[in-house]
Hints:
Layout: H1 7-16, E1 21-28, H2 36-42, E2 58-63, H3 67-78, E3 84-89, H4 94-98, H5 109-122, E4 128-134, H6 143-153, E5 157-161, H7 175-182, E6 189-192, H8 198-208, E7 213-215, H9 217-221, H10 225-234, H11 250-267, H12 270-284, H13 289-298, H14 304-317, E8 343-346
Parallel strand pairs: 1-2, 2-3, 3-4, 4-5, 5-6, 6-7
Antiparallel strand pairs: 1-8, 7-8
Helix pairs in contact: 1-11, 3-5, 5-6, 7-8, 11-12, 11-14, 12-13
Amino acid sequence: MEGLLDCVLRDVLTRIGGVDRCVSEFIRITNTLLPERAFIRVVPELLNAGRTPAGIPVRPQLLGSDPHCLADNAARVAGMGCDGVDLNFGCPAKQVNRHGGGAALLQDPEVLYRITRAVRAAVPAHKIVSAKMRLGFDHDQQAEECALALEAGGAGEIVIHARTKADGYRPPAYWPRIADIRARVKVPLIANGEIWNVQDAVRARQDSGCHDVMIGRGIVTNPGLALALQEFDTNTNAQVTQKSQTQLSWQDMLQHLIYFWELVQKRITRKHQTGRFKQWLNFLRKHFVEAEVAYLTLRTVNDPQLISDWLVLQSNRINVQPFAAPHVPTASSDVAPRREKSALQTRDPSSSASLVHLNH
C-alpha cells in the first residue's frame, strides 16, 4: 500500500460508495511541532471540513514514539477540522520499526499507554482518539495487554490488524484473536486484515465478533467491495455468494480510472504520473481481466500523453462518458507520491459505532 492510498485514491474510492470513514497515510512525528501546511499536504481534505469531495470523513493518522511531541501535533491537527486523530501502532516497515515507531511499540504496552494518554489529554474531548495495532511484534502473547493499555490511555476505538509484525502480510489473518481481545476491552474494536471480498468480511465478523471492518488492499484491488458489503448488510436474507453481490463492471471502472488519471495529472509531478497509474492498474488486474490486459499493454509506457490517449481510445470503444472532476482544495498541485500508508473502513449498518482506512 506504500504511496497508494492518498487523497487522490480516497476521492475515487469514496465516490464509488460503501465507505464510512477514511484514515490518512501516516504522518511521521519526530521531535518538532509540524506546521499546518505539513498536515494539509498529507490530508488536503482538512481544507474541506475534513471530508473527501464525496463527504466522507478523513481522520489524520500520526506515527511516532514521543508522547509529548505526538500530543502537541495531535492538538494542532485536531483543531484543523477533522473528527479526531488516529495513532499508528501497526506499521511493520523495517525503517519505521528501527526508529521505534509503528508495530515496534507493541513490545512495550506502558509506552502505548503513555502515548495514548498524552494525546487524549491534548485533543478536545468531543473529538475521538483512535488507534491501529497488530496482534504483536514477534508474537501475539501481549495482544490483550496492548489493547488494554490503549483503552486505559483513552483510545475510544481500536482497529486490530489480525497478524503480528513478524507475520507481515502472509495469510491467514487470525481473526479469532480479535475475539479474545474483545472479551477483555470495552471500547469498540474494528477487524482488519486479509479481507478481499464479502465472504472474507462475513467470516472476519463471525470470527472476531466485530461488526465493523477496515479494508485496505481489498478495496484497492476491488473498488466495489465496500459497496457490495453495504448491499449485503442491507439485505438480511442475502446469501454470501459472488452472484448475490453487486459487481462493479469494467465499463464503470474505466470511468473511475479516467477520473483518477485527471486527479493524478493535477496533483503529481509529470515524471511520476505514469508510474502511479500503472501502480493502481497492477492491483486492479487481480480482480478485472480487462485490467490485466491493460497493464500488459501499458507497463512499459512512460509518457503521460500515451496514457491519456489509451484512456480516450478505451472510452470511445465502450462509450464511457467521463464525469467532471469536482474542485478539490489542495496545498500543492505539483507533488511527488508519498511513501506512506492509509486505509478505508466500512461498517455493518446495525452497528452502534460510527464508522471507518487503508491497511497497514
